[in-house]
């Protein structure tokens, strides 16, 4: 299963649509905040995909979205958030602790605009970077386990 992970589109729809076009087989999209209005438009135009989303620090006036999400997708339990409420620009210690307490095997966050994919003490961690800068992430699950990738828009 392939999941498209995006963050920080900052109301630049071309970037989101480019990532969606590049990953047509990703049936689930996890949006990590900062551009929810753009996401809502794309979700309405792509009803075949499942969209999960959290609010970011620049999503002023947009309601109905949580600050964090926890989702079981296949064999993985995913904790996702924008990251600003956890101080991720300094370190991810508090966020990693929260994800572990929630029983997550995968942690997704945005806000820093710095792409990163790593595995630390049993937790797969992905920050997809910022779509506004041309970066996004992929989370793939299969018989071999979990694969995290950072990608660039062509």
State the main characteristics.
19% helix; globular; 5-stranded mixed beta sheet; Purple Acid Phosphatase, chain A, domain 2
* Structural class determined from secondary elements: alpha/beta
CATH-defined architecture: 4-Layer Sandwich
CATH topology: Purple Acid Phosphatase, chain A, domain 2
CATH homolog superfamily:
Metallo-dependent phosphatases
Order of helices and strands: EHEHEEEHEEEEE
For the CA atoms, what is the radius of gyration? 14 Å
Count of helical stretches: 3
Strand order of the largest sheet: 3-2-1-9-10
The count of DSSP E runs of length 2 or more, i.e. the number of strands, is 10
Number of domain units: 1
- What portion of the residues fall into strands of 2 or more residues? 35-45%
- Helical content stands at 10-25%
Query: What form results from the Cα inertia axes?
Result: globular
What composes the largest sheet?
Answer: 5 strands, mixed
Q: What distance lies between the first and last C-alpha atoms, to the nearest angstrom?
A: 22 Å
Uncertain residue ranges:
none
Q: Name the CATH class.
A: Alpha Beta
Can you give the mean pLDDT?
96
Give an overview in words:
The mean pLDDT is 96. A hairpin with a 2-residue loop joins strand 7 and strand 8. The longest helix has 10 residues, at 13-22. The protein has a five-stranded mixed beta sheet, covered by helices on one side. The chain has a five-stranded mixed beta sheet with strand order 4-5-6-8-7, covered by helices on one side. By secondary structure, the chain is α/β, with parallel strands linked by helices. The protein has one domain (2-152): Metallo-dependent phosphatases (Purple Acid Phosphatase, chain A, domain 2, 4-Layer Sandwich). The chain has three helices and ten strands. It has helices at 13-22, 36-45, 93-101; strands at residues 2-6, 28-31, 50-53, 68-73, 76-81, 106-109, 116-120, 123-127, 135-142, 145-152. The chain is 19% helix and 36% strand. The radius of gyration is 14 Å and the shape is globular.
């Amino acid at each position: 299963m392939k999941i498209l992970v995006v963050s920080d589109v900052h109301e630049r729809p071309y970037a989101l649509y480019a990532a969606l076009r590049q990953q047509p087989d990703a049936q689930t999209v996890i949006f990590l905040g900062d551009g929810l209005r753009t996401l809502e438009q794309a979700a309405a135009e792509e009803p075949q995909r499942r969209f999960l989303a959290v609010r970011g620090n620049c999503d002023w006036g947009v309601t109905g979205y949580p600050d964090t999400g926890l989702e079981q997708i296949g064999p993985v339990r995913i904790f996702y958030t924008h990251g600003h409420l956890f101080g991720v620009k300094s370190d991810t210690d508090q966020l990693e602790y929260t994800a572990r307490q929630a029983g997550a095997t995968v942690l997704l966050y945005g806000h820093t605009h710095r792409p990163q994919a790593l595995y630390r003490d049993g937790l797969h961690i992905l920050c997809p970077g910022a779509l506004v800068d041309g970066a996004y992430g992929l989370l793939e699950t299969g018989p071999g386990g979990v694969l995290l990738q950072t990608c660039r828009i062509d």
